[in-house]
Amino acid sequence: GAVDVIEYGNYVARTATAPLATADRRGRPVLTEANWPLMVRDAQGSDVAHATFMASVARREEKGSDVNVASHMLVDVLGGAVDAAVVVSNDSDLKMPVDVVRQHVPLGLINPTKGYPAGALNADSTTGVGGHWWYQLTAADFTRHQMPTIVGRLSRPVGW
After folding, report:
1. Among 66, 97, 127, 157, whose CB has the most other CB atoms within 10 angstroms?
2. How many Å apart are CA 90 and CA 116, to the nearest integer?
3. Is there a cis peptide before residue 97, judged by omega within 30 degrees of 0?
4. How far apart are CA 142 and CA 137, in angstroms?
5. Where are the beta strands (DSSP E) in 32-149?
């Protein structure tokens, strides 16, 4: 009885073409260039130094949930239906609606990822009406809040 609306997005399957890369120590892409033992040669048989390898990959992308969250949040806040809002996301696409909400009600942002909080979502706790807060979920948050091993006819999988 505590949930009024569950708004789902959807997944689309696409093929993406991009330069082959590896992650640096902070997870940023470093392009892979041709170098021995794997080299690219031109039509004359000469090595092509610093050639970029291109890869085509299949990927699934979730679409719509950030727009749905933002739309419902703005309708609720601007319509006066809520006194505060909490968003569980680290999606910088939410910057504009989050900024608008901060002008009207206190906002809590919960980062569910292991990465740094999205810079676009940062602000001073006193921005707009003030009272804003941030939290980053940890593995301990999930393990501390597990349901009991058995709930009715259901049991938690072994190892959870």
Report:
1. 97
2. 9
3. no
4. 8
5. 54-63, 85-88, 107-111, 133-136
Give the separation between CA 97 and CA 93, rounded to whole angstroms. Answer: 9
Nearest CA to 22 out of 9, 11, 33, 37 is that of: 33
Residue appearing with tokens 């709930």: 151
Q: Which residue type is seen at 126?
A: T
- Please, what is the angle between helix 95-102 and helix 65-78, to 10°? 20
Contact present, 18 and 8 (Cβ < 8 Å): no
Predicted TM-score of the model (pTM): 0.67
Q: How many CB atoms lie within 10 A of CB 137?
A: 14
76 CB-near residues (< 8 Å, 6+ apart): 82, 85
Tens-place pLDDT, residues 107-160: 999 999 988 889 999 999 999 999 999 999 998 998 888 888 888 998 888 877
